[in-house]
Amino acid sequence: MNKYEFDNSPNKLLVLLAGQSNMAGRGYAEPEDLTIIPNLLMIRPDGKWQPAIEPITKDRNFVGTFSASGEKVVGKDPFETVLPEGDQKVCGVGPGRTFGRLLAEANPDRVVGLIPCAVGGTSIAAWMPGGVDDWNPNNYPYDFAIKKAREAQKSGKIVAVLWHQGENDAGKQTENYLEKLRTVIQNFRRDLQLGDDVPFIAGDMASFYPERLSAHIDIVDHALEVLATEDPTFRYVHTKDLTHRGDNLHYDTASQHELGKRYFEAYVQR
Questions:
Q1: pTM
Q2: Cα of 72 vs its chain's centroid, Å
């Protein structure tokens, strides 16, 4: 099968992935993460479609394929994953590909297109129109997400928005987080013309953060609880039982796969 066989499908089921690093993904790839799923694609920064092989979100330079010495392995096409050889590893597994696989399996006659837009370390402020990446002054997460999503919408319909964000704001003890997240959701719906049938699904904060974060995760979790009660299109999934990759910040690969399943379970609960 030609790996681009499905890229011109005009009626894709699109899934927008947004938030910070635990949506972008920091897990280490296993063989199953590096194999082509026939009707699962992702849109690249240049607007082209390619198979959704991890890492689907290359938001930072420490995401990708690396040798045992730590040197990054870069191919001729910077948007494609260099498959590891020997003791090389691929960093960047998130929940989006698992969600996309399950959606594709449930719709075998359709092509699923992922729109990876998450950016590690970003605060809620970076997800407002004109908001700037906390670590890169030349990156505008929300604006770039809207641009990429609109390009993707030329060949399909967004059927879900997956969101995981809040570690940054828990650390900052951001005031009025609920109102800010509510505004982010409203902006996405307005700027991408999303109907009421498109769920916005979020993951809550993990249980393994260091004290500087864990003491304030209620700022985020409370917002999710409130939004779930007032907005029938908003859903959130629990992650407190999931495990980290050894850094007390990021879900490990198995947890990312499980998180993707939970997002999908929330998606189908209509």
A1: 0.96
A2: 22
